[in-house]
Amino acid sequence: GDHYSRAWGLWLVLTMLSYEASEEKLKAQGDTLDPEAVLVMEEVSLEEVQVERRNRPLDEQEAASGKTSAQIAEMRSKQPECKTRIHWLRGSRELIRGTALSAGKCISFQWKDSQQLGCVASAWCLVELPEFIQTAVESIDSKVVSKCLTLPEKSLQLAALLLVSVVSSLRLQLNARNIAGEFLRRFHTMQQILIESLASGGEGPYDMIARWLHEPALGLPNENEFRCLVSFMIGQCICPPLASTPSLDLETVLAAPGKSLQPQREPLPPVDPKARKAVEQVPEPEFLGAPPVAECGTPPAALLDKIAQEVMKEDQRLQEAQGPKMEGPIFSTMLCHLLFALAVMVPAHPKEAAQSSTVRGAAFAQLIKVQHIVAQGILPKALYEPADGERAKLFLYVRATACVRSALQTIMASWFAADFGARFVITEEGGKDFIQYCCKHINQAYNHKTALTRVTGSPWERVMLSQGPTATIAELLVVVCSSDANLVESSKLGGEQALHSLSRFGDSAAIRQQTTMLLTKLAVVLKK
């Protein structure tokens, strides 16, 4: 067909997908619903229709006399809504193939609306229709999608970025068609082109992505979603997915046909200062794993501080949105993506990250939230995101865990990978701030109340404590205080009280014994 009909036919498919009826709604109307029906309407009696028809002129008069948009929207929400059924599409491999072919042609045709509809519909169908990817790897031109990212239209950039995000993070289902060698080759090539073109866009590596983050807010629709996707794709470019075959085993990664296994090293060096010398003499263990689908190079160090600043801004926005009642989310999807990008970027610049007060502040702000929740006894309901609806608790747990884990990885990848520790001097740049953070965190984490909460607390409180970084921070403080100069200097910053808390409420006997020895050593040194 012609391009116009193809584009708006794809729009109809996208509209029906977005208005799909829920399973609960279909079960409620199971007895009266036609099995072949596509539209699902709410049952309305004749009396209700007549009353609504009589009240319509009155509603219009009230709207003209000064009714607010919220009140008008409330009146409209009372009207029966229409939902759709797409069983006819999900169960037809031919229709899915035709939809994928139409989407590919819409993206390739040089018409902004056509390309925008093609990108959005492709992203939605990749998630909703598992068979869509089989044809999409052939019909969608990755180079055309990459070119859409460079065009000036913001809406087209958002649509193309949405498709790139879905393709780069798509996890294939395990079936015979998805493990075929030719399909995997096409799929991984598609991922490679999209990811590498995004990272190399602009005048240098990550230039286009950095400019998108630096752009001031213009009040455009979905502007926050665009920045959210940009943050996520920064992490995807730095840490691309692996060219592996679909598998049910998350631990064992097999390379796709045509891809050779590559040696990979275990991350994070040991913390124990006594074992460090012995371990350094032995080669680190290697294991074979699938290679990444793309190689985007090292991001600039300046982007590290920029992302950390964005984390602080998002934290400030969430804090202001809570209001005087201190109710509302303190973790958001935007925050998750920013911290993910920060966590995967820090290993490329560990020393700069360890000495950056912005990076430390962004990471420790998330870790302090854990102790604030436990200390104040904040219930999960007070932190729900209203837009999440029935899945608010699930999304809260996912976002909280992701943010805390990413912040912890940021600290470990900077201070540990930079090989600070016993050689670290507190008087170095950022050293005092870091030790103050550690001492404050340990004093809040190791006390009578926290010890009791670990045993008798609610599932929410136990999750917060188990996901928290207390054990890692405690080990790091012990390593730093292993030198006499650091031990004396840390005592001026609250280190003595932190070591005392660890000696009483430490997680293991080894930590309690080491901190007791450090306290004894501190007393002897200060007495001299």
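the 2nd protein, sequnce then structure:
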Amino acid sequence: PGASEAEAAAFRVGEEVEVFGLQGAVDLNGKRGHVVSFDEKSERYGVRINGLPEPKAVKAAKLRRVLGQSSSESARTCDTYRDAPMPAAFVEFLLETPVLKSLLQLLPAAALSALACCQQGLDREVRGADEAWEHLLALTFGGNVAIARTRCPGVTTPWSLCRGLAALRTALRTAVEIRRGDLCEAQALGVEVAVCPAVPSLDPYGPAASAVYQRAGQELADYIEASCERPVPHGDTRWTPGFGLGTQYIVHAVGPTLRTPDGDAKLHKVYANVLSQMVERGHTSVAFASISTGGNGFDPLAGATIAAEEFRNALAKLRQQRELRIVVVAFEEEIEQAFKVALGKLVKRPNEDVLEVLPLMILDSMLPRQRLTFSVDRLMNRVDLEQDRFAMVGVHGGSIISAGVEVRVVSRRTVGDSVELEVVGGRRFTFPGHPSVEEEPERTSAKPLLRVSLEWVRDEDERPTHEQLALSEALEPLVERWLRLVRAGRERQPGQMDMILEHLGPMPPAAEVTDRALWVAALINPLPGLGVAWEIRPAMLNADSSAQRLDIARKGLQASLENLANSA
């Protein structure tokens, strides 16, 4: 390559880049991070990917600069703009648009003839640009090609998958309605099926069921008594005629309670059952009341998110072969807002599940890249020792903190009658609602086996202000001073800080405000603690923005420096 090309291909340490075109680790495509090193022997850059504990080695050909940087003139070349991702709305506009037909009508016959000659080849080139479409798919719809193929059965090429996901996003926007109201008014909504939250006995328990039973009349109670097998297991349904409600059918959906084993999965099941059954029966419209978020105790946002994921799954299976109208009838404003938030997240990234289920560990708040060794007897709950990934959370004031990190087991060994695990912290998460019981203990005094539906924290799109960047840069000399003071006699064992720094890796660049703040917090609040700083890990996990995390880390570091200076 020429000099200008070589210069354009080079990346500087600290520069923000985006990974694309990987054939092996496809889950990294579309991820952003910062260059932290360059290995001349392997000709690979060390890139710290946002949310991952360790840097990844990536060839220059698989990296592109992120737009908006001023660190190099090459970031403003035509090539950079050519490779920039298109906005999601523009992608959908291009995929399904009548505008081109209108423009073609304005062309003279000679131009149309020439265009027809090259159209076939151009179309083939565009559709066959798999790497570009894979990158666009991850950026615009979330997930990756493998996940997209499960959403769009029978579709294989990245170009076709983008079309399918664009259609799925449109279906979510148009097929699902969220309305304030009462399910007993389902007839006015013009739906064929009304889905009523139910209990295993099918008695009219709760405001929604009471109102529906009253509107449907005594015929409904008589039909249930004569024809419905009870008790109904959690996650299952019973269909009855609509009677006085005015719909063709009422579906009595028995959702889980907080004490139901594997409750989140059973809530998924009940929504999925209703949707698949109505499609099998040939119905095209349904009204849902929110299931399990009343007396059953589920958090409204958790319940709404599970419902929205199943709406998405049902629409994906139909693939526009049939129309489907889904109306969510929310009696309370809190339920209405929860469904709007949950649906909005799926519309934005329809190729990803908002929630992921992981087995839970309740012990202590950890931060990314921190390591902790402990006996499983110290855990507040039981764990399956065959698992390698867990959601780790701490406790504050007797309550479980609803934010934590994914941990991976890096070693395990038997110590006496117990097992000792070493875990390393990874991605951060929050979880709406409460953990669910995976398995009831055989004895009432035994610890339960728990799992949690969590949502990964996404903050890679945050850009620091000039003030935040200055405060972030000011952390480095404070950290150097803090390390000198701790090494002067406050370590619990020789070389403790060297070991911690080896685990945490180099301090992230100042532009990565959140990663730098988390790094500082992990340094001054190691596990086990040094006793020289405030406990700021829970606050860091619960912070809503990079500015808050930076403020917590800065104040925690300054307070620790004062404490060290006063005790010297």
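The chain is about 40% helix and 20% strand. The chain has a mean pLDDT of 86.
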